Amino acid sequence: MKNIIKEGEISLLFPEGEGGGLTGETNLVKHNGQKFVLRKCETISKAKYYEHLSKKFEKFGFFPKLIGRIGKNVLFEYIEGRDLKGKGEKIKYIEDIGKILGTINNFKFENKNENLFLKQVKECASGNYKPSLKVLIARKIRKIRKIPKKVLTEKQSKEILKKFNEFKKKLNPKIVYECTDPMPGNFRLRKDKIYLVDIESIKPRYKGLGISKFLLEWGKTPLKKNKFINGYEKKSSLKFFNEEYKKFIDLNFLMQRLNFQVQTGKDYKPSIEKLNKFIKND
After folding, report:
1. Do residue 128 and residue 197 come from a single domain?
2. Which whole-number Å values give the CA distances from 89 to 62, 93, 95, 96, in the listed order?
3. Are 43 and 72 in contact (CB under 8 A)?
4. What is the pTM of this model?
5. Domain containing 207: what range?
6. What are the residues whose beta carbons fall under 8 Å from the beta carbon of 9, sequence distance 6 or more?
7. Neighbouring C-beta atoms of residue 247, cutoff 10 Å
8. What are the pLDDT digits (tens) for 188-204?
C-alpha cells in the first residue's frame, strides 16, 4: 500500500463542480496499470471509521474492497463501470438500491448520542453556525463570503423542537447506519452489479432518513417507489415507516436541508415555508 501511494499518480477523483465527492477527500491513484481510490481523511478517527465500515459491509458485496489504511489515508479498490445517471439508470437496478439501504439499516449504531437536529435548530435560531467540512467546501466552491444569519425566530425554534420531542417520545426512533444520500451518482454499475461508492454517505442517523430522501428526490415516480420498496423489504421490514414516522423523518430532513442552504447561500425560503406549514398542519 505504501508503494501505491508513494509511486502512484494521484488526482482528485471528483473535480469541483462535477457533483459528488464534495469533501474533496476522494482521489484516484494509478499505479502499474491499476486504479485505486484513495481517501485522504481530515482526521485519524474518520479514516478508522471508513475502515470500520468496510469490515461491517464489505461482506455483503456492495461495498468497495478495502486495500488498507495508513494513518489518515485509506485505500480502496476502484470500481470500474458507470454511475446510474441518465442512460445508466435502469428500473431493474432501483430494487438493488432498496436492498442496499435495507441491509445498511439493519445495523444499529451504538455509543452515539444523536444531537444533530438540536444543533441545526439552535444554529438557525441564533445565527451561530459551526460549519461542517462539507459546508466549508460548498461555500468555497460557490465563493460565499457572507456570514450566514439566523433564519428562525425563538417561537419557531421552540415549536419545531416541541414537535420533534413529541415525535421522539411517541415513536422511539432508532439510530442506525444510514445511507444519507441515495442519488444516482453515488452508485456504480460493474458487470451488472450495483456498488455504493459514496461511502462517506453512510452515517449514524434516525432510521428511515435515506428512505425519505430517495422517495422525495430520486424515487418520485410510482414505478421507482415500488421497485425500491420491494428491494428494501427483501432485506429489512418497513412496518415502522408509517405516516407518522414518515412525518418525523421529513421534519429531520427539512431541518437538515434548511441548515445547509442557509450556510451555503442557497434559497432557503421554500424550506422555511415547508417547516411553518409542517408545524401548523401537524
Report:
1. yes
2. 17, 7, 12, 12
3. yes
4. 0.88
5. 86-281
6. 29, 30, 31
7. 17
8. 999 999 999 999 999 99
